[in-house]
Amino acid sequence: MTKLSASLLVLLVAVTITESRLPKKFPGNLDLVFILDSSGSVGTSNFLIMKRFASNITLSFKIGETLTQVGLDVFSSTVTTEIKLKEFNTCAGCLRAKILRAKYKGKMTKTFFALDHARFNSFSTHYGARIGVPKIAVVMTDGKSQEKDKTCESAKYLRNSGVIIIVIIIGNKVDMEEIQCIASGPSFIFTVQNFSGLKKRGFRDRVARKLFSDKIAAV
Q1: Is 160 helix (H, G, I), strand (E, B) or coil?
Q2: Which positions of the chain have pLDDT values less than 50?
Q3: Which one of 35, 106, 110, 215 is least enclosed by Cβ atoms within 10 Å?
Q4: 138-176 b/e with 16+ CB inside 10 Å = b?
Q5: Could you give the C-alpha distances from 195 to 24, 41, 98, 143, 191, in angstroms and in order?
Q6: How far is Cα 56 from Cα 52, in angstroms, rounded to an integer?
Q7: pTM strictly above 0.85
Q8: What pLDDT is stored for residue 52 in this prediction?
Q9: How far apart are CA 210 and CA 133, in angstroms?
């Protein structure tokens, strides 16, 4: 074997190994809602990083009305549904573009408002949620909520309604006790040291694997 052939073989093996580690597009049905903290501590530039993370992670899913549907809520002192589950289930590119256009709010961190809104609206059939389809909320936050007790209570009601809650913590200014009462369990909590951590492909792939892991259905 020539040196050139050996080099090509090594390259081919490396590419094959790399591709095998990447998550395949999830072909199943899932109702997925991102709930982004848009409070004053986040800032516009970091909020853009959060939006890009949410937009990019949808690349791991086959989007469609019988496949994965994606919604987006943004919260601070108030909550806004930027994307309903049924809104962009026929155009994945339109979905990702709309995520990036979500507006930054500023102000306070009323997480319980966002969780209540998700239960009553975002995961409602009126917004496009489907009966019998797994439902997951991905909450992304960098700090403590203004009313911890209300947040924990709202999270409990949302989980009891059948929604799995994944929490992505950004930085070290959160209340871990509060985070634990929001998430569906310890394995549903992901942490990055700062907003730049959301840019890393490896972290995004870890979250994507969790979203379509077989264990999700057993929770």
Answers
A1: helix
A2: 3-23, 215, 218-219
A3: 215
A4: bbbbbbbbebbebbbebbeebbeeebbbbbbbbbeebee
A5: 25, 12, 21, 12, 10
A6: 6
A7: yes
A8: 98
A9: 17
Q: What pLDDT digit, counting tens, does each position of 93-131 carry?
A: 999 999 999 999 999 999 999 999 999 999 999 999 999
Q: Is 61 helix (H, G, I), strand (E, B) or coil?
A: strand
pLDDT of residue 84: 98
**Distance (Å, whole) CA 144 – CA 71:** 23
125 and 55 in contact (C-beta within 8 Å)? no
Question: Which residue type does 168 have?
Answer: I
Sort strands 135-141 and 163-170 into parallel, antiparallel or unpaired.
parallel
Amino acid sitting at position 126: H
**The pLDDT value given to residue 213:** 80
The CA distance from 150 to 145, in Å, is 9
Q: How far apart are CA 168 and CA 80, in angstroms?
A: 19
Q: What is residue 6's predicted lDDT score, i.e. its pLDDT?
A: 44
Show Cβ contacts of residue 58 under 8 Å, excluding neighbours closer than 6 positions: 68, 70, 92, 95, 96, 99
- The answer to whether residues 172 and 68 touch, using CB atoms and an 8 Å cutoff, is no
Residue 5: its pLDDT value, please? 44
pLDDT at 50: 98
Distance CA 81, CA 71 (A): 8
Q: Tell me the three state secondary structure of residue 124.
A: coil
Assess contact for 124 and 71: CB atoms under 8 A.
Answer: no
